[in-house]
Amino acid sequence: MTLLSAVETAVEPETPPRNRPSAARRVVPYGYLSPTLILIVVLMVVPIVMVIGYSFRDNVIVQENSVFAGLANYSKVLTDPDFLVAIKNTAVFITVSMVAHLALGLAFAMMLNTRLLGGVTKALFRLVYILPWLFTIAVIAVIWRLLVDPAGVLNYVLQTLGLIQEGVDWLGDPSKALWVVTFANIWSGYPFFMISLLAGLQGIPHDLYEAAAVDGANPVQRFLHVTLPQLRPVIISMAVLDLIWTSQQFALIWMMTGGGPLNATEMLSTYTYKQAFSEYEFATASAAAVIVLLLTMVLAFFYVRQQRER
Questions:
Q1: Residue ranges of region Disordered (predicted)?
Q2: pLDDT the model gives residue 13
Q3: CATH 2.60.40.10 matches 72-309
């Protein structure tokens, strides 16, 4: 009896087989996701497919019977001098804005993270620095149009200081309009970078700075070898996002200059809009939109890849 009891104890009891979820239970998660999926399909997938289809046809929307044009619309867009100017202006606009956003955002974030300022002073500076982010694009465009008007505040200050003799038409001068619009975009966008980088700075362990100081590193070396490496994931993510967002900037440019004067501030977004709703060349506008979509997808690919590596 003792041996038989030992054998029965050694044998593990069989676990009951798990019941496989029924077909109805497997469908339940998709039921919860269905409203979002339907919205994505209706509001994103269908319009994108329609625009791609329009880009390969001629006389779309304005005529009932459109004809297949192949790559003619793409060839027309890529050889259009206005489109080439828009690409150059967009490249300058994006590059200067991104570099300035990161530089200003990091500088202000480090100032707000320093221990040299008191709590009240930091709170006041945070309120002032975050104000541009609270305004809508329409308000920002109106503010800057009033500031740079020939009879505006900027010219008044410069004349008072004796730097200019008469009012300058900042948005009417082709050599200055692009830089004014870029500066307005920088002013409206740097608070987001400041907040993100400030959060990154506050997440750096203070022990790293103490260890670097013990090793004899000066403030510049601590910034280069401690701060920047720790902020590298945040900086890369913000830079890629800024490339995507700035390349699609439309409202600020349209409300300030409308792409003028003389195409000085023409961007890919304003070029596409004009082709569709000013020239009524919807096929050409669709081709330009597809090109912008491809460029944005390339940037989005690098962003997703960076996030996966992180």
A1: 1-21
A2: 53
A3: no
